[in-house]
Write the structure tokens for this entry.
Amino acid sequence: MRIILDGMGGDNAPDSIVRGAIAAAKEIEDDIVVVGKEDLIADSLKANGYKGDQITVVNADEVITNEEAPVKAVRRKKDSSVVKGIAMVRDGQGDVFISAGSTGAMLAGGLFILGRIEGIDRPTLATVYPVISHEPSILTDTGANAECKAKNLLEFATMGSLYMEKVLGRENPTVGLVNNGTEEGKGTALTKEAYELLSASDLNFIGNIETRELQDAVCDVIVTDGFTGNAIVKLTEGMGLMVLRELKRRFLTNAKSKLGAVLLKDQLRDLKKEFNYAEYGGAPILGVKGALLKMHGSSDELAVKQTILKSIPYVKEDVVGKIEEAISRNEDKDSSE
């Protein structure tokens, strides 16, 4: 397979992108194509000592920044790394596109260049949600759709479940609906209607869940609207950084605490690893006719490498095709009732 990588997206491009591609190339046999300003990427490959032929470069002279209006930028900047990379997936020149660039541009490009899967009202951004001392969950949506209908939440749950099963290897994943209480009648008109749809679906739905339960591995797939999901992700990220920062400060207070830090070094390293988003790879944009993965804007070499590795089962398990089949079955079920 051919993995298309945005060489110009993110805060640390192109160097971190290139280093991540080189690190991944040592572990896989698949081809990696880096799209972006050819001279800059070639210089970075050379500076990092790469001499193989597994990584190639496709030139794209334009870059879409986070400050630009996504839809306008995608329509105008045809030679940007994002537009060119997504078009390569559409045209069969690549199997998956990965970027740490503008989320809005990725969503717009997915919709305008690849198109929505038939039967999907809105694509979703599904983020891997770390759970301490347990396998991570998937949180969807995390920002693609600030306002949703109940039908959208059912679609998010269906797509998130397939990604969890096929890419992260969780058989028959459990699904929970974020709410302000666990009782069936709790919540807004949106969550009440979504609860009914999820209960009637073939998904392994366990009911409403509260945000305080997320770190207890309450379910595999966490479903909510994009506004709430984005707030959950940013609050969790901020709390994680705060806890790690405070632990470091307290362990460096005096000689006694420093000795404790030495004794707990391995445990602290494991804790930091579990909090590190880079370990989990990028967030899939599900619901479009092609495989797209969005990385954090500040992704480093490890994050890029892990996302490349996660992209392989995403493509080889044909997650996009299985979503199409699942949505088609749901529509057939609705029409027969």
